[in-house]
Amino acid sequence: MAEERRPQPAGGLDEVRRRRRARRLQEKRRRAALRRRNALACAAIASAVVGAVVGSGAGGGGGGGTHKALAARPSAGGIGPPRSDQKLVASKGPVPILMYHVIANRPATAQFPELFVDPDTFGAQMKWLSRHGYAAVSLNQVYDAWFRDGKLPERPVVLSFDDGYRGDFVYARQTLGRLRWPGDLNLLVKNLGTELTDPMVKQLIDEGWEIDAHTISHLDLTTLSGNQLRREVAGSRQALQTRFHQPVNFFCYPAGKFDAATIRAVRAAGYLGATTELPGDASKDQMFQLHRIRVDGSDGVSGLAAKLRSGGA
Length: 313
Known about the structure:
- By secondary structure, this protein is of the alpha/beta class.
- Helices cover 44% and strands 15% of the residues.
- α5 (166-179) links the parallel β7 and β8 (184-187).
């Protein structure tokens, strides 16, 4: 049987070669066009990202550029230096720590009415602090300034919230968020799941709040010893560290009650310091008896101002 041959185009082999060259040239041009389109797309995305970052900085009042826009957010968990868009100075001096409890409207049946600061009053107090040059920082940042050559704003203040109530998330978080200030949540473990949920606490951490321990059950530590004392002091730290992956470097004595044995337990648990209810500013030479300024529901703005003046701030 005769060998079957494929039909050849007119012009023979020269025509075949010409068509092949034409196809290769066409494919080469197609790939070049695709590369150009990809390059243009990447450039457009990069331009949009840069524009968004710069725009957010400009929206804050002055177009401070990428660095300023990124620095405007507090560091998660209050770890690291304060925001770099504010003037920072080296400082070893005393720092006022304000002590709040419940940020909410006081119910008529409240057993301890002075523990309630209504949200409007709290907002007015924060505005007053800001207008008078104060800037909130975390206890970790204060410790870094006192012992690790860190820096603080010229008029630092720590805003501490004891126990962990829903108002910390619903009201205080919003007010401090507008100022880009961190809070210091002295978290009572038993309040998790009742007053605050884990996602709420994690969001506070993401927005710059520091998490510290306030025991598991809010017992009078001066009446405890041995395993009971260790459970409330060391156990609360371990529980919060495991749950939220934070250092939990500071402790808050329930009702401000402590003695020599309590301080030994706090030191043994690895805390860097502890806050009390003793009035006045906190100083670096009393790390396990850090004084605080109690803010009562009846203080208002003028009462807070008076307490800060009496504390030396």
